[in-house]
Every structure is written in structure tokens, then in C-alpha cells.
Amino acid sequence: MANNLTKREIVLEIYEKTGFPQKQVQQTVQMSLDIILNALAAGRNVELRNFGVFEVQVRKARIGRNPNKPETDVIIPTRAVVKFKAGKVLKAQIKQLDLEKLQAEKAANPSTFEDDDGDDEGEEGSTSPKA
Questions:
Q1: Of 9-13, 46-50, 68-72, 127-131, which range is least confident?
Q2: Alpha carbon separation from 34 to 3, 58, 74, 95 (Å, rounded)
């Protein structure tokens, strides 16, 4: 089983804990995500106390290199990216993770943990191929 938490799993867990109809829970979860998405798309930061902050940052334009054609420079334009900074409660719970178990799971299923470069952002616009 994949190690990722899906929207469907969130809906099912809320349904099991509250007993609200699944359709209503699904609509509420989707509405919450839409509100967060729209705020970020409008350039607003989203602060969820004790969980963390989604922050829109502007990345400066830079010159990259295409690994398939190293002699060719690629201009990477200025763009907005979303950064996530964990809140106090989330940081405390992450500190309690069993790192050996997490590394073992990662080694057993590397496709679950694709973005492993430590830059805390997606790979959109990347000039390097995925491993």
C-alpha cells in the first residue's frame, strides 16, 4: 500500500469519526482545498495554526543547464512557488518519527518518495530529469 495520504482517505476518516454523509464530507474537504488553492493563486499566504504556513514566494530568473545538452544554457523565468513551513505541533510530531523505519519504507518503495532533493518544492520547470 502506498505511503501517501489521499483526499479519499481524509474523507473516509472524517466520515468514520463524525458519521456525516460521505458526499457532504467530500464536498466540505473539496471546498476547503478550493479555498486554500484560490488564496494561494491570488498571492495570499495560508496560515493554519499549529499545522503550518503555505507561503507564496517569488523565485528570481536564473540560468540553468539542460543535462542532455550541457553546452546550451536554459533561461528559467521568474516564477511564483509555494513553500510550506511546518508549525510547532507538526514539527514536534515529525521529531518523534522513527527515522530508521521511514528510511526502510523509502528504500522498499522509492516511487512513493519521488521529490527527494530537499528543496521543499515541486519539480515544475525543472531542467533535470527525474531519477
A1: 127-131
A2: 24, 22, 34, 30
127 has pLDDT over 70? no
Sorted by where each begins, the domain ranges of the chain are: 1-43, 45-112
The domain defined by 45-112 folds into: HU Protein; Chain A (4.10.520)
Please say whether the beta carbons of 106 and 100 come within 8 A.
Answer: no
Q: What is the 3-state secondary structure (H, E, C) of the chain?
A: CCCCCCHHHHHHHHHHHHCCCHHHHHHHHHHHHHHHHHHHHCCCCEEECCCEEEEEEEECCEEEEECCEEEEEEEECCEEEEEEEECHHHHHHHHCCCHHHHHHHHHHCHHHHCCCCCCCCCCCCCCCCCC
Grid cell in block for residue 131 = 531519477
